[in-house]
Design goal:
By secondary structure, the protein is an alpha/beta fold. It has helices at residues 15-24, 39-49, 67-80, 94-100, 108-128, 167-176, 188-206, 225-239, 245-250, 254-266, 278-284, 291-302, 322-329; strands spanning 2-7, 29-32, 54-57, 60-61, 85-90, 134-135, 140-141, 160-164, 179-182, 214-222, 285-287, 308-312. Residues 11-300 form the Luciferase-like domain.
Length: 330
């Protein structure tokens, strides 16, 4: 199984070194995030510091940027990386798009679908030398003079990977994207019972097959009590968020969401991890005393559901989970 790691919130001055370190550890994919900085600048640093691993935005926010802006940026990153870049896109939530970025939020699934189609149309025009004539309900791109047309690329266009939590966005990924990026707050049951059927509906709508879309699942892992408790805090945080309630509801844990959400609104963050018992935590986190044991648990949980797996941990150094990744590749 191909294994990825995400450099969460890495400083721009440290991204290159961290990416090189992750590649040396054997990870097949390295993700950079949009948290405290620009993910495309981080991806450029990671691409220049590595030579084998796939470099992906995990994720970049689509809606604050136009498809043309992202098309140029992804095209350049694909060239810079020697064909190793993957464009991971996500929506964020309305409050962040409108109040933090000052951008437009509307019809997120329909907007993302058209966004990806616009990217394809722009890249088609660059690759073929043909006219750009994309006219959707949300985006319109109809001008591409020769002076603004990139030269022919030496590599295939970058794959577009969509982050999806709910069924509608998952269907969009199946219909138009090259990959699905699963959220770490997702259990194997939800992936099997909800996510993959939604993906199949999108594939059918797009006239495609399962082989056309790469599925990446994320999973918390822990090799000791410290890691286990750190993941308990993360699960409590995600479990308090209305956007992820459906995951708990699928396991009959709606009352747990209500309790977590109430405490988050009251600012009682310290009380929330205590509501996550070990059985609930085990739905999201694979615990083991040895790397091989953790790898076996990840493979048993996700091996028949996903093409790639991203190992999620609170550890600052990916070396702590590298032995697990190595065991998964064996």
């Amino acid at each position: 199984m191909q294994t990825d790691v995400v450099l969460r919130g890495a400083a721009i001055t440290a991204v290159g070194a961290q990416a090189a370190h992750a590649e040396d550890l054997g990870f097949g994919g390295i993700g950079v995030t949009e948290t405290t900085g620009n993910p495309f600048l981080a991806a450029a640093q990671a691409a220049q510091a590595t030579g084998r691993a796939r470099i992906a935005t995990a994720i970049a926010l689509a809606f604050p940027r136009t498809p043309m802006d992202v098309a140029y940026t992804a095209w350049d990153l694909q060239a810079l990386s020697g064909g190793r870049f993957a464009l991971g896109l996500g929506t964020q939530v309305r409050a962040h798009i409108e109040r933090r970025y000052g951008a437009v939020w509307s019809q997120p699934a329909a907007r993302m679908r058209e966004y990806v189609l616009a990217l394809h149309a722009i890249w088609d025009a660059w690759e073929t030398g043909g006219d750009l004539a994309f006219e959707g309900e949300i985006y319109r791109h109809t001008l591409m003079p020769p002076n603004f047309r990139p030269p022919p690329a030496a590599h295939p266009r970058p794959p577009v990977l969509l982050a999806a939590v709910r069924e509608r966005m998952t269907e969009v990924a199946g219909e138009v994207a090259d990959g699905l990026l699963g959220h770490v707050f997702c259990t194997a049951d939800v992936l099997r019972d909800v996510t993959l059927p939604a993906l199949e509906r999108g594939l059918e709508r797009g006239g495609r097959s399962r082989a056309d879309v790469e599925v990446t699942a994320s999973v918390f892992v822990a090799g000791d009590d410290e890691g286990w408790e750190a993941n308990r805090r993360r699960v409590a945080f995600y479990g308090s968020t209305p956007g992820y309630r459906h995951v708990l509801d699928h396991h009959g844990l709606g009352s747990l969401f209500e309790a977590l959400h109430a405490r988050s609104r009251a600012g009682a963050w310290a009380e929330m991890p205590g509501l996550i018992d070990d059985d609930v935590l085990a739905l999201f986190c694979v615990r083991g005393d040895a790397p091989g044991e953790i790898a076996a648990g990840v493979r048993a949980r996700l091996g028949d559901l996903a093409d790639r797996v991203c190992l999620v941990t609170e550890a600052a150094d990916p070396a702590e989970v590298a032995p697990v990744a190595e065991a998964l590749r064996a």
